[in-house]
Design goal:
Blueprint: H1 3-7, H2 11-19, H3 25-43, E1 46-49, H4 51-64, E2 78-82, H5 109-116, E3 120-125, H6 159-166, E4 172-177, H7 183-189, E5 192-195, E6 215-220, H8 223-233, H9 251-254, E7 263-266, E8 269-270, E9 274-275, H10 278-293, E10 297-300, H11 309-322, H12 332-339, H13 344-364, E11 370-374, H14 391-402, H15 406-411, E12 415-422, E13 428-435, H16 440-453
Parallel strand pairs: 2-3, 7-10, 7-11
Antiparallel strand pairs: 1-3, 4-6, 5-6, 5-12, 8-9, 11-13, 12-13
Helix pairs in contact: 3-4, 6-7, 11-12, 11-13, 12-14
């Protein structure tokens, strides 16, 4: 197998190659570091490359191969970490140039789990400032670009993670999703992205300052890889404010289970926020047709999301204030959001309203197993396309683009983004499957069935 094929080999297969001694952790790390050196200047997918640490870890793990057969599931497999998540001794910028020397002395909870699973950390991937935007163009950093067409965004805020996986600069990535920040980049870059249920993945060792709307999750090239990384990420840490039991069997095991005949709803519009463009609508309709062919019962209907709009926006934008950064250190959009932050009482009223409307939405799933939606309402924007708009205009553009994503963040339900085709600019199109609370297993089983019926893994961007 040549080095390019190795770079695009799914992470689970890389782990098996290592176990069979057909490739070493050091060889894999060197392949990815060479590709990062070659391609990251044009992609902007990594803020920090941990080359020395990765090589040292890879050498140690390569040596361990000759001494033991007791290996964790992803022993020696390289991975990236989003630059909103602390890694001990490594800068964590949050997409803000004032924080380039912001070094934590601890690992984030998901980073601890990722290390325990045997992964090797390659570096910290690009994010929008504070994770606020669905594109990744923070001031003071090169913009992240879409490997399928460099004129366009890979999405955000996990845009660097998605670009890195899609371009073969890592085989799998950790991301986070507070309003579509895993699913959007997955759709923009032709990947699988899972937003887990609330309580599935820890916020340790600190807390959740977003009232449960945000969570960590995987970005991968296959459903099996994403499921296996979710297995790694899942689980309780002491003191977590809410949590779910681990699945029995594993999420990976559900990729081999038939989902049965499911009751599936679908929609291509999110009233009152907008209607999917022709490309995104076609992605949903093609998926619906395939689901019918696979024996599922499909009906066009959708919950009423309109009551979520105002309270979700209020809760979401308070994350800027929660960062503690002064207004003068922020980009214009985040500075504008900071100025809109209300009182503590208004915040609690918004959380209260969010919970009421979320109950109504979850009740929709009493008679439906899965809801199929577009991920975004239109194809990716060009890099810098909204740069000259006012913050208020930009905010309205964002709402009109990402509208299908926030409902699952508000309710805490799981959702998975899947690639389904390409638009006229050669950019991937994705759909999302939203499931009942804590029902990732159903989504993963259904996603694997769709993947088997219409494989995607052979598609790669042409980067020269």
């Amino acid at each position: 197998m040549n080095t390019v094929d190795l770079a695009f080999t799914p992470a689970l297969e890389q782990a098996q190659l290592i176990r069979r001694r057909e490739v070493s952790p050091l060889e894999l790390v060197e392949i990815y570091l060479e590709r990062i050196q070659q391609l990251n200047p044009q992609l902007g997918s990594y803020f920090v490359v941990m080359a020395d640490q990765a090589i040292a870890d890879a050498k140690a793990k390569t040596e361990m191969l000759s001494k033991t057969s007791e290996l964790p599931p992803f022993f020696g497999v390289p991975i990236s970490i989003k630059d909103l998540n602390p890694v001990a001794g490594i800068p964590c910028t949050l997409g803000n140039p004032a924080l380039v020397n912001n070094i934590f002395d601890y690992d984030d909870g998901v980073v601890i789990k990722i290390k325990q699973a045997g992964f090797i950390l390659l570096g910290k991937t690009a994010t929008s400032e504070l994770g606020s935007c669905p594109y990744t163009e923070p001031t003071g950093f090169p913009p992240a670009r879409n490997p399928w067409n460099l004129e366009y965004t890979p999405g955000g805020s996990s845009g660097g993670a998605a670009a890195a996986v899609a371009a073969g600069l890592c085989g799998i990535a950790q991301g986070s999703d507070g309003g579509g920040s895993i699913r959007g980049p997955a759709a923009c870059c032709g990947l699988v992205g899972i937003k887990p249920s609330r309580g599935r993945v820890t916020h340790a060792p600190v807390g959740d300052r977003a009232s449960g709307i945000a969570t960590n999750g995987p970005l991968a090239r296959t459903v099996a890889d994403a499921a296996a990384l979710l297995d790694v990420m899942s689980g309780y840490f002491t003191g977590d404010p809410y949590w779910l039991s681990d699945p029995e069997p594993s999420f990976l095991a559900y990729t081999k289970e038939k989902p049965g005949n499911l009751r599936i709803a679908y929609a291509t519009s999110i009233p009152p926020l907008g209607v999917a463009d022709a490309n995104c609508e076609q992605g949903v309709l093609q998926t619906v047709q395939l689901l019918q062919e696979l024996g599922h019962t499909v009906e066009q209907k959708c919950p009423d999301f309109s009551g979520l709009v105002e309270p979700f926006q209020f809760v979401w934008q308070t994350n800027v204030a929660a960062s503690g950064l002064p207004a003068e250190a922020l980009q214009p959009l985040n500075r504008w959001l900071l100025a809109r932050t209300g009182s503590a009482g208004e915040y609690l009223q918004a959380v209260y309203q969010l919970q009421i409307v979320s109950r109504q939405i979850v009740a929709f799933f009493d008679t439906v197993d899965v809801l199929v939606l577009p991920v975004y309402l239109h194809s990716p924007i060009r890099v810098g396309e909204w740069a000259n708009l006012s913050p208020e205009e930009t905010f309205q553009k964002i709402i009109g683009w990402v509208a299908p994503c926030p409902p699952a963040n508000a309710t805490g339900q799981p959702a998975i983004a899947l690639p389904v085709g390409f638009d006229d600019n050669g950019l991937p199109i994705g759909v999302q499957l939203v499931g009942r609370p804590a029902a990732e297993a159903t989504l993963i089983s259904l996603a694997a069935q769709l993947e088997a019926a219409k494989p995607w893994i052979h598609h790669r961007p042409n980067l020269g």
